[in-house]
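Obj: model holo form, ligand = alpha-D-galactopyranose.
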Amino acid sequence: MKRHTKEKLINETGDLFQERFEIRPEFLSVAPGRVNIIGEHTDYTGGFAMPSAIDRWICTGISKRIDKSIHAVSIDFQAEIKFSLDEEIIFDDLWKKYVYGATKIFTEKFTLKDGLNILIHGNVPIGSGVSSSAALEVSLMNAFRTLTNAEIDDLELIKMCQQIDHRFLNIKIGLLDQFASQFSRENHLLKVDFATNSHSYHLADFSEVEWILIDTGIRHELAVSKYMERVEECARGLEAVKRTNPSVISYRDILMTEIDKIADSHPVEAKRLTHFYNENHRVAETAQAIEHKEWSKIGNLLSESHESLKSLYEVSCPELDFLIDSAQSFSNWLGGRMMGGGFGGCTLNLLKQGYLDEFKELIMRAAVEEKEFEPKFLDFRIVGGAEVLQE
Ligand code: GLA
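Output (holo C-alpha cells):
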C-alpha cells in the first residue's frame, strides 16, 4: 500500500469527499493504527501494556445531510452504504458493520438530528495486526462527537468504540487498540493500567535501534473463537483462585503461589494466568529498560513474551513461530514476538541499528524457501493519537 503522509491523506480525504458529495466535509477526523511493544493479552484481564500509535491512519470526512439518512463511502473498499438510523440491518462486510455499529452506539446516548455524509480513506494495512478496525472506530466516534458537540470524555469515547466490537462483531476485546489510537503522544510509549484505565507516558528514544513488523499476511479462522476462549479461561482461572483464597478480588491480586494451587485441578487456566502474571512483570521491566536504553534486555523480554504467548497462552501459530525462529539466527536481532491477538497477523522485531536490509533478506529467503507464504515488512514511526480538524 502507498505510504501517505498524514497531511496528504487528510487532504485527499477532503477532496474525495467533495467529489463524492459535492460539498466540503465539515470535519476531518484522523485516527492511527497501533503497535504494542509489550503486554499482550493483558487488557481484558486488567493488566498492563505499552502500546503506541504508528504513522498509518484512517481518516473520516463528515458533514450533516438535510435528510435523515446515513451515507458512508469507503475509498479503500470501493463500496458504499446508505441506511437510516431506525433500520435494523446486519451487514456482512466488516467496515460496514463498524460504521453501522458506531452510529447505533452513538445514538443510544446522543441525538443525531440530521443524517450524515461519511467518507473513509486510510493507509492502515488491514488484517496485519496493527488495528485498522480500532483506527476506524476511533476516527468515526471522534467525528460524531465533534460534529454534534457531544459531551463525552476520551475514555468514555473509546469504551463506546469497544462496544461496537462487543455487540456488532461479538468479540469481547479489551481496550488496548482504542487506547493507543486515542491517547498516544508523539515520541512516547503509553503505559496503560487496564485495572483503572489510567495511563502514563514514557519517552521513547529509539534512535540507537530499529523496529520492524513482519506481517505473515495470514489470519486464521480460529482467531475470534480462540480469543473468546482465552477470555473465558482467564475468568474460570480467577474463579478457581477465589475459591482457594476469598480475599482475591481481581486478576491483579493473584500471586504465583495461588496459581500453583490450582495447577492440578485447572491446568489450562493456570497456564493462562501464569502468562498474565509474568507478562505484567515484563511490562514493568520493559518500561525501565526503555528509560535506560538497555536494548538487549528489551529484546530478551520481547522474546520471553513470545515464548509465553506460544506455550502458556497458546495464541501463536506456525507462521508466527517460523518468523521468530528464523530471526533468531540473525546475530543483530535483539528479540521479537508475535503482536496483537495472534493466530496470524505480525511479529514485532527489535534490531541493532544498520542491519535492517540484511535482516529482511534473510527472512524473505527463509520464508520463500521453507514456507508457502510471503511476509511483508512494515516499518513505522511512533506518533500521536487521534485528532479532528475543521475544514
Ligand atoms: C487484540 C484486541 C486487544 C488485545 C490484543 C491482545 O488486538 O483487540 O484488545 O486484547 O488483541 O493483546
